[in-house]
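re: ur question from the group chat, yeah i did fold both. here u go
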Amino acid sequence: MADEQTQKPDTVIIKKYANRRLYNTETSSYVTLEHLAQMVKDGRDFVVKDAKSGEDITRAVLAQIIFDEESKGGQTLLPARFLRQLISFYGHGLESVVPTYLENSLEMFSRNQERFYDYVEQQMNAAQVFKGSALGPFEEIARQNMAAFERATKMFSGLAGAEEGGEENASPKAATGESPAKDGFEEMQRQLKAMQDQLDKLSGKPSGKK
């Protein structure tokens, strides 16, 4: 959020005190993690600062929100396998690779979700949804989304294996000097292009144009 980009003029400043209480400077009131979670869902940008030192602790607070959400029954989004893989990347010099890939993947997923809802609304307005083969395009989008995340998992596993196992466990491409990260990003780009073409086809737009 605010620690990763230029702070917006309407960014809300949240102060965290030693007693762990959170103070919203915009509303001049104390808030909870649930309030901050709702602000995220509403698209409100905020930054959390330590009330005493002024240190930006937004990342830690967001992580706490995710932990709380994951602790609630029936609302888990992060599989144990994914969390284990993510933990294994720490200390392997992947700080410049993993965050960017995850951000791009989630951005792609969010963009596809919005276009998916737009398409559903259009079909409902035309009284065509759930008739004949109307679900065919939806199934194709879902299949491509799953394929993209499976490729991401395989790429991450390959990177971790190369770091931990050295040359003996490295892939043939790694042995010849080719970067598994680069190869993974190229595959992601191909996947993004395929999904973009599919969505453009559904929305009636010329392929490759926004």
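okk and heres the other one u asked abt
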Amino acid sequence: MVARLATALIAVALVAPPALAAASERGASAASSAPAGARLLSCRRSPLLAARVAVVGTWMRPLAAGRRLAVRVDLWQHLPGGRWTQRTDVPGLSTWVAPTDPLLGTRPGDIFKYRQSVGRLAVPAAYRFRVSFRWSDAAGAVVRQTAATTAACREPDVRPDLVLDSVEATSAPRGNGLVRYAVTVRNAGRSPAPRSVVAATLPGDAIPNARHRSVPRLRPAESTVVTFTGPGCAAGAMPASFVVDPANALEEASEVDNEVAATCPTP
């Protein structure tokens, strides 16, 4: 359970993109006769931060007056309720890249192909690439520049979300002045939640969250009940409290509903 970033900080979830792949081909055919183009190749959605990736593929042909080729990839992000804004904090982006082959662009049929991946996409958000293309002459003077924008990569929040819906405190069946606490755990997220635990702090416990009960794997909208037996408390005293996934091992869609306190029944 990783603490959810505030909206203003969601953008920082992106880190350095995976290794770039720049490739050039001679005599390859392109789907369009235009001198350049870009396309969103992949938009991988996942409940896991490390698995969310967007990939753009670009290509450009030399012009008669501009045989030196260069491409630049920029990433734009749209957060819920906001506007499209350019990301300027992702290493490897917003930099002009030329072919590794210095002769590429000087031969008939040359095509410069370039691919860029960006990983660890924050959710919920949408992303798109704006790709700039630049042609220069032999002296380095820019003779033409254009740009293309890809389709959006929409990243919904498909993470699980463990919720402690309620806790019911009743006298334990065998008496002895003990109380039975029945805690309802539900997965309110959009993907299965792996096995977890609920930790309890009962009245009189010297160590918080020392009592644990296992929670099975829960599908979306599925719930289960775990029980604890222990002392009740006097009126006005601290009641029993419960927290799911106390070790913060699960990345969830929300962290605001992982704790619940019981009423304070007397045994």
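fwiw on the second one: The two ends are 34 Å apart (CA to CA). The chain has two domains: 7-155, 162-261. idk if thats what u expected
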